[in-house]
Specification:
Layout: H1 5-17, H2 21-40, H3 50-62, H4 67-86, H5 113-120, H6 127-142, H7 146-150, E1 157-158, E2 163-167, E3 173-177, H8 180-197, H9 216-229, H10 237-250, H11 255-262, H12 267-272, H13 278-288
């Protein structure tokens, strides 16, 4: 009777490694695809070679899977063959020298300036529409992550200097310039914020009509709805972040300044650019961002 090596591997991960049920199910689905591929080649899992693994990943690409998902499949496959090698079922690893696809090879989508104009024209003049307008303007004006946007506090924004403090990943603070268009949208929103707050108190800049912090899920849903309404398809906050960076670079901004404004998490890279001052960031921003003025 043929042994079910995938089942044995998953049992090992559950018992010896204590992996979560969701992870085990994900590994199981990925390895089932490999087993089906092997069967289609009239081979067993033990007889697959490097060329077969490369053909399998090619099939995944042709099926429309992105680099991150293919990388997850490869992680499961490498784990399986490491298990089979250690258990003495194989002597050669077919995944050796098979490179994991780089996520950056799939370029993130971004919007044109005309697309941005259409998106930003969607919020109406209701109280929530004025708030949404301010949130969208600030998102495009700063390239913040959505988690950073909803966590902005009133004290973080200086309308006089045109700079805001952002608390990013790893609790690292950075200063980001924002232009006059975002400033006007924020100024228009401030009385709405006071109205939403009522007799409550909150440090957060963006509130819902109940006076509570706008949730990540709510804003994500909101931007998707505005994108569809504008005829732009499925828009995500990260797409706006990538658009911010792309438009700055297209208009002549240097990579050092853009990276610092984005707050990338790479420590060594961040250290290289610590000499870029806030004043320089403001000059670069005012010269290069389409909505700086």
């Amino acid at each position: 009777m043929n042994r079910d090596f995938v089942k044995e591997f998953l049992s090992y991960l559950a018992v010896e490694r204590g992996l979560a049920t969701n992870t085990l199910e994900s590994y199981g689905r990925d390895l089932a695809k490999l087993a089906d591929f092997a069967a289609s080649c009239n081979k067993s899992l033990l007889s697959l070679d490097r060329g077969d693994i490369l053909s399998f990943t090619k099939n995944l690409r042709l099926a429309g899977l992105d680099a991150k998902t293919i990388g997850r499949h490869l992680a499961a496959i490498r784990g399986l063959y490491k298990f089979l090698l250690l258990d003495g079922h194989m002597q050669h690893d077919p995944t050796a020298n098979v490179e994991t696809p780089k996520a950056w090879q799939t370029l993130p989508k971004f919007l044109t300036k005309e697309d941005v104009d259409r998106l930003l024209a969607q919020p109406d003049n209701s109280d929530t529409g004025i708030r949404d307008q301010a949130m969208l303007q600030l998102l495009y004006a700063t390239g913040m992550r959505v988690s950073e946007l909803i966590s902005v506090k009133l004290a973080d924004v200086n309308l006089e200097t045109g700079l805001m403090t952002c608390l990013g990943k790893g609790s690292k603070e950075r200063s980001i310039p924002f232009g006059q268009v975002a400033e006007k949208a924020l100024t228009r929103y401030m009385p709405i914020r006071t109205k939403f707050l009522g007799k409550k108190s909150s440090p957060f800049l963006f509130l819902n009509p109940q006076g509570s912090q706008v949730s990540r899920q709510h804003f994500w849903k909101t931007i998707v709805e505005y994108g569809e309404k504008a005829g732009l398809g499925h828009i995500t906050p990260h797409m706006i972040r990538h658009t911010f960076a792309t438009h700055l670079i297209e208009h002549g901004a240097d990579l050092r300044s853009v990276q610092l404004m984005l707050g990338h998490s790479d420590v060594s890279t961040t250290q290289i650019y610590t000499h870029v001052t806030n004043e320089r960031l403001k000059r670069v921003y005012e010269m290069c961002h389409p909505r700086a003025k």
